[in-house]
## 1
Amino acid sequence: MKLSVIISVALCSLGTIAFAELKEIDSERGDSRVRKALESCNVKYTVDSDNDFRVSWTVSGGRDHVVFVNSNTETYSSGEGIGDIELREIWAVGFISANISEGNLRSLLERNATYKVGAWALSKQKDGRYIAKFVIQVPADCRGSVLRQFTHLVAKTADEIEKIATDKDAY
């Protein structure tokens, strides 16, 4: 009996410690560099379950568009002794479709050739549908003003295609 009481008390204590640690992590979710950059420009955001930042912009015609700033980063190395660069993605959904026609694919590729930064990418989902998303890779530690400009550019570009492809304001 004494042993089971001791084990129960120990498990309860561990649960309290684990809960306190989770609560602390929860209040600081996402990459702190992104948080600081967005807050420095008074950009409102939320953090999703993947710890990515969601920023909503109002674009032309009073339409809204959500942009994601990934907390996860990737490091690019040229292997030439030049050094590494840590990059993160900023992206937004243009449309989601089970079937993307050859004409729509060609249109997205042709548009890619006109952009100074960013490009359209397709991501196949588990349910077989495709997400057409506009993506920009930026240095992981870019300044707030740069992050603000790029999130707005991504919103505007993705929303243009959403309007053409769906005539809705869903994303």
## 2
Amino acid sequence: MKKIFLLMIAIAMAGGAMAQNVQFIYLDATTHGTTRPGPGNSGMAIIDDGNTTGDYSQGHDYWLTIRSNCDTVDSTGLKHLGLTIHSLDVGCSDTLYIYDGPDTNSPVLLKRNNCFTTDSSEHFYVSTTNVNEEITIRLRSTIHDSTEHYAGFHLELACQFPCEYTVAVID
């Protein structure tokens, strides 16, 4: 089911990619430990090493950091790096971590798998104290029984206006 869902998302994003130039980055051995520029005016999708069609690999601990370039998109400084979880299927002995900073020593925004979560939210922004607006994404996996298969994750990053609630008062 995830494969069909991700295929539909990939097709939809590919259609929009011509206008938005959505960048796909796979969390794998080639991107492990690297820092990448943020999404800018276009979108950015972070996907596990199983791509959109397969299960993620077992027995690794990969992470990558995204450094925001939202200030080049919006000179007012009002847009911030936001992350949305589109799909998540991570085995109970594996964990997806999202850190509010440049490395895995930064504060944890999210720690999630199919059995545990620190936050039920599907959307996050870097904190206001994170002056470089960096976010680190990590997938730590163990070796599974050969009958266990997990589809992984699909995250999207974008420069966005954080949601704010305004209350009008007539005086």
## 3
Amino acid sequence: MKKLIFIIVFLFSQWTITFADTSYFIDFTKVLNSSKPGAEAQKKLKQRIESDTKRFSKIESSLRKQESEIIAQKAALAPEEYQKKVKSLREKVSKLQKDKKDSFKNIAKSRNDAKKALLEAVNPIIKKYMDENKIRIVMNKQGVILGDSKLEITDQIISIINKEVSSLKIQ
């Protein structure tokens, strides 16, 4: 009985040592934000957001101006004409809100597509790195509670990505 327990404990300890020696982790968030293609994609998306925000701000100020003009003309206009102008303004505001929603929805889709494209480009790089360095498993850093910083391969992967992936296409 003692021999059986000893053998089980010995085999289990050998298995965990082997497994622990080949487990590495990578911070995918850092890869997405710090690699050249990821940072470039983030910059393009940020510029697109700023551009759309400026465009919508101009339209909003124009609509506010139209609103104040309509309010100022209320007494001079016939009730039907006033209602017609108010309805027209409401339609413009509704269209603006829809355009804003669609714009930001498209930007979010572009961001997800860029993230997906970068991850698709990263997977073969990680696989090649694993083969070259005889690594059996790479885990996402978010799933690691504690780990030796020597087991993190994020910076090595980022440097390889910067060399091999030039840029991402963003729609």
## 4
Amino acid sequence: MVFGFGEDKADLVLEKTSFSAGEIIRGRLVLNISKPKKGRSVRVVLFGQKTQTEWRYDFSSKHSKPHTAVTKIYEFEIELDKEKEYSGNYAYDFEIAVPQSADARKQFESKIENTLQQYDNTPVGGIFRAAAGIGKAAMHPPRTDWFLEGKLDVPGGFDVSKKVQIQILQT
């Protein structure tokens, strides 16, 4: 092993990988620690991230170019074990609830609509609505990806972790 990589292992075992809003995710985090290692904590994190692509005009090249931004939209963490020295095999069962509202596209569109409503009865309201229509056409609807990550947090070292992508179905 080069520089000790690959000696320790984490695995996330889930009952399934597709969930509905409000459903409970049940699983097990399994850690195999080959040599004694001081750990800050063992945690499981459910997080969602929104990927939004929009076209921006680049004045230097005089062309539009896509710009992609990734934003964390949700994060919930549970601690499964405290600070101590870890060595050997560990298994932690956990349950995490999927958020009730997990649809980033609806949240994105309602945010734009709420902003526009503030200007509807003003002289510039029509201009903002027209600009928003053009802007929405130039932006792709956001894509939301959901992940579950289990890890042993190692201060000053490499965490022992496993991340899996899950699907949250929109109802």
